[in-house]
Specification:
The complex is a heterodimer of chains A (218) and B (512). With 218 residues, chain A is of the alpha/beta class. Helix content of chain A is 32%, strand content 28%. Chain A is globular. The chains are: A alpha/beta (218), B alpha+beta (512).
């Protein structure tokens, strides 16, 4: 078991967003966290990524606590060593070229830069020719691939994607889903994709449906 | 982080360039002021070291100091030769170094003096020998370097203290011969040509008297230095005669006290009249024509130079036939005397005595230099305040730019946090931006200031004469650069604190 989410709850100003969320994912398992807007997906994902503190429960990666009621966000080291995150919108440092963004991510998360790995990632995602382009020069599709490439180059054990296909058409949605599988395969990562996009249902080995802050049986 | 900070700076080139420019201008101004102030003060102090008092013709004391100690202005006039003897006899005086100015070679001043001048400036002969005979010349290191003069070479001095191609009167009848080249000292002596006082008199055809007989150097030493050698031999005769005559009325003068004994004895004897008492001697300063002694010739033969003129050391300002006619009536004089006290009593008594009882003036280099620096310093202070205000404006511009950046790039910086950058690293990125801007501005300002100094030094003779070293770094420049770096850091502190406090989740959600 790589990821363990147990008893996680979270409220904001009297409003309960998550209630006793529990699930586990094994090494290299693929899971879809499906739910409509406002179901608590992003909050759960933030807690899993160690960016937010749960009010109760805990998140562990390979036995190491990444987030619990005692603290989150401060456990940079666990997050750095284990997580790759693909954001919903283009999240690249605007002042840097695409390749420099990947180098920065590698440097921050692994402590070193592997240019060969970056080149391989860019080629795998079909954007090697855009290596020196600045983020604002990338098309939406290229930007999405760039975000996946950045997650890939840090060789994560857990790859988390937040609404990776929300702005894409069906063809590109399929392409991105395939790429996520391919990337996870290439590094042997566990993949967790949070989305409201029903088109992705069935594309992953496990589907976790979140409704009103609770995991419900599919 | 450095790479990222640099990338952010490059991402807004115009703002960054303007901020750098502001800081660079401020630093350049401050470095220029620092260089001018420090180098001028150091130079003044070094060149005036060991000179407690300067005695010269009445006029501006500052002008006297500038011309006689720093060799950058025109002399105030001349003083009679026998004032040298009088001062040397004073028990409170350790050393009196005579100066006879009036000529230049290629813009470098020819200074008639004695060996005491070399000691005063702690100068060392690098090549050749010290001057021993009239028309021998020892040249400063800069003179040797710039003119390419070598030992044994001859040159002809021109009238005046600066090169003037339009009115360059050469003393062809009395060429100088280079006998020595000085090692560099970093002082004014590097830019001087030193020669016995007698050389200056010879170059201007001044005669001297001995036992009532006039010897006219100008007539005896025409066209070739061999004439100077003749004169030297002739003067050696005087030396022997001086010894022989030690008991007669000239014995009042101790030959050992004279600047160049063989020659000085002759001139001194001619100039000194036993009828003169101390006051009488000093009162002849600047007005030698009024002296009624047999050696002084007619009153019309001497022209008292105005304070702003550049008189040769023998009060001779005529040329051509008139000069030829008057040569026999000219009297050797000196331009100034550099006095070193033996004890403090001299400082109390001698200046007041000279200023009150003679027609000469006594000026204290330390006082005049301080006065000059105070005068200049008041102007420099205003500029300095302006430059610091400019530096603060630069800092403010950096602050505004970074604050704007912190607002615009919160999303980026939150992303860095999510990717694993600590708060400290994000904070450091912003601080680095301020630091890099200030560092580039500081270095460019420093280079610009020294580049301007170098250009000015090439184009302005006064700076060359002051021996300005345009690329000489000063310790205070290091402090100045540190201060500018501190401005950059302080300007970045608030924006950095702002990004330090970023909540990455909220920021990412807000900037979606």
């Amino acid at each position: 078991m790589l990821l363990s989410v147990s008893g996680v709850g979270k409220s904001f100003s009297e409003q309960t967003v998550l209630r006793d969320v529990n699930f586990e994912l094994d090494q290299a398992e693929r899971a879809l966290l499906l739910g409509p807007s406002g179901s608590g997906k992003s909050t759960l994902l933030n807690i899993i990524c160690g960016l937010q503190r749960p009010d109760s429960g805990r998140v562990e990666i390979d036995g190491e606590v990444l987030a619990d009621a005692d603290g989150a966000g401060e456990r940079n080291d666990v997050r750095r060593r284990n997580l790759g995150i693909v954001f919903q919108t283009l999240r690249l440092v605007s002042a840097l070229s695409l390749s420099a963004n990947l180098e920065l991510a590698q440097k921050l998360q692994t402590g070193s830069v592997d240019k060969a790995a970056i080149q391989v990632a860019l080629e795998r995602l079909g954007i090697a020719h855009r290596a020196h382009a600045r983020p604002h020069e990338l098309s939406q599709g290229e930007a999405q691939r760039a975000a996946i490439a950045r997650a890939l180059v840090v060789k994560p054990r857990l790859l988390v994607a937040d609404e990776p296909t929300s702005a894409l058409d069906t063809k590109n949605t399929e392409t991105v889903a395939a790429l996520l599988h391919e990337v996870a395969d290439s590094v042997g990562a566990t993949l967790l994709v949070a989305t409201h996009d029903e088109r992705l249902r069935g594309s992953f080995g496990k589907t976790l449906e979140l409704r009103a802050g609770e995991i419900v049986p599919c | 982080m450095l790479k990222l900070a640099w990338a952010y700076l490059r991402d807004r080139p115009l703002t960054t360039a303007l901020n750098i420019l502001l800081l660079a201008i401020a630093v350049a101004m401050l470095v220029l002021l620092l260089q001018f102030g420090t180098q001028a003060r150091d130079r003044f102090e070094r060149d005036a070291e060991g000179i407690d008092l300067v005695v010269g013709a009445k006029g501006s004391p500052l002008q006297l100091i500038l011309s006689s100690v720093f060799h950058v202005d025109q002399p105030t006039g001349n003083v009679p030769l026998n004032s040298l003897e009088l001062l040397r006899r004073d028990p409170a005086v350790a050393r009196v170094t005579p100066l006879a100015l009036g000529d230049n070679f290629d813009g470098y001043r020819i200074v008639g003096t004695d060996s005491g001048f070399l000691e005063l400036h702690r100068a060392r002969i690098a090549e050749g020998e010290p001057f021993a005979e009239p028309m021998d010349a020892v040249i400063g290191a800069t003179v040797a370097e710039r003119t390419g003069a070598r030992l044994g070479q001859k040159f002809i001095g021109s009238h005046g203290l600066e090169t003037d191609a339009a009115d360059d009167q050469g003393h062809e009848h009395a060429p100088f011969r280079v006998t020595g080249i000085l090692a560099p000292t970093g002082g004014v002596i590097d830019r001087l040509i030193l020669t016995p006082v007698e050389s200056v008199w010879l170059a201007h055809g001044i005669h001297h008297y001995h036992d009532g007989e006039a010897h006219e150097h100008g007539a005896e030493h025409e066209a070739d230095a061999s004439h100077a050698e003749d004169a030297y031999e002739h003067e050696h005769e005087f030396e022997n005669e001086a010894e022989a005559h030690s008991a007669h009325h000239h014995a009042l003068i101790d030959p050992a006290l004279l600047p160049m004994q063989p020659f000085a004895s002759g001139f001194q004897l001619a100039a000194y009249d036993p009828a003169d008492d101390a006051t009488g001697l000093f009162q002849r300063a600047h007005h030698t024509e009024e002296h009624g002694g047999s050696s002084s010739g007619t009153a019309s033969s001497i022209e008292t130079a105005p304070p702003d003129a550049s008189p040769p050391a023998m009060s001779m300002r005529r040329s051509g036939p008139a000069l030829q006619e008057q040569r026999g009536a000219l009297e050797p004089e000196l331009t100034a005397l550099l006095v070193t006290y033996r004890n403090a009593s001299g400082a109390i008594r001698i200046p007041s005595m000279i200023n009150r009882q003679t027609e000469m003036q006594a000026a204290v280099p330390a006082v005049e230099t301080a006065r000059l620096l105070d005068l200049v310093g008041a102007s420099l202070d205003g500029l300095r305040i302006f430059a610091w205000l400019l530096a603060l404006t630069g800092g403010l511009a950096v602050f505004v730019a970074l604050l704007g950046m912190a607002r615009n790039r919160e999303g980026d910086l939150a992303l860095l946090r999510v990717m694993g950058a600590s708060r400290g690293r994000v904070f450091a990125t912003v601080i680095l931006e301020g630091l890099i801007t200030a560092a580039i501005g500081g270095v460019l300002g420093w280079l610009a200031a020294h580049g301007m100094l170098s250009l000015a030094q090439r184009n302005f003779a006064t700076l060359r004469d002051l021996g300005f070293k345009p690329w000489q770094p000063l310790p205070d420049e290091g402090l100045l650069l540190l201060a500018v770096l501190a401005i950059g850091v302080i300007a970045a502190l608030l924006p950095a604190w702002r990004v330090y406090r970023i909540d990455p989740v909220r920021t990412l959600a807000r900037t979606n």
